[in-house]
Amino acid sequence: MSTSPTLIIMAAGAARRYGGLKQLAPVGPTGEAIMEYSVYDALQAGFDKVVLVVRREFEQAFRDKWVDRVAGKAEVAFAFQEPDAFMPADTEVPERPKPWGTAHAVLCAKPGVEGAFAVINADDFYGPGAFQAMGEFLASPEANTGSTAAMVGYQLEKTLSDHGTVNRGVCEAENGKLVDIVERFNIARAGDAAESELANGGKLALGYDTIVSMNLWGYPAVMMDYLQAGFHQFVASKPEPTVEFELPTFTKLLMGEGKLSVNVLPTTEQWCGMTYQEDLPIAQARLKELVAAGVYPDPLWQ
């Protein structure tokens, strides 16, 4: 059994605002997808296995794109977020317009995970410093006690898009520990601060130094058991068809129950991603700069 952490990549999203399979869009100078840089950074930070959570119909596309190039450098496994995956026995699968959510996506990776693990989005660039911080945490005794997780905290200003609004998990932390996380919607620059739209039509000002989550989480192995039990409880509650079993919400629930504490690992890394089609050239320019600076080789896999 490996003692190195596993990286779970959530790549089953529908990409409604972007259009197309943005998880495989060519971002690097030699056509690399943005998630390839996350895998590269994770390997440098001590990870040795990657589990890709994808839709079954896109498995071959991911294999053809880059999985073979990683062979020999990391173990790569696939997991599929099917509607009936980890469904409680004797429970009829309800019809839903959307998948069960990000916490269910992570749970679907359970068969391929043996120990501590990290979770990321496929379409976000997190930066090498973020993975280094997470790798150090997951290698520490604290991450193997069964009660401590971690989240990389980004400065809001470094996670905004120039081409539209974004949603972010706004965090409150005390003494390096996560106290609360609240999803804020339709955030955009507004002069000296950013603004989020409220449900009542109002605006909430958010300082550019506000700490936000970009879904780079790290968990002890026991989290998979928590997720399975939590998903069964979620299904038993008969949620509305559009309500999802979300990773930040479930993590906060475990915090409230005293089962988990979450370290906030601050980073000054610049996020980039592909929320909108117009974000692609910006991400490409960012990776070109990093390659020119020697942060990454070109081609990435040599």
TrEMBL record:
UniProt cross-references to Gene3D superfamilies, sorted A to Z:
Spore Coat Polysaccharide Biosynthesis Protein SpsA, Chain A
Which residue ranges does UniProt annotate as crossing the membrane? none
Q: Which UniProt keywords apply?
A: Transferase
Q: In the UniProt record, does the keyword Secreted occur?
A: no
Q: Which Pfam families match?
A: NTP_transferase
The residues covered by the Nucleotidyl transferase domain are 8-227
| Signal peptide per UniProt | none
Is Translocase tagged as a keyword?
no
Q: Which GO terms describe its molecular function?
A: transferase activity
Protein name as it appears in the record: MobA-like NTP transferase domain protein
| Organism of provenance | Aeoliella mucimassa
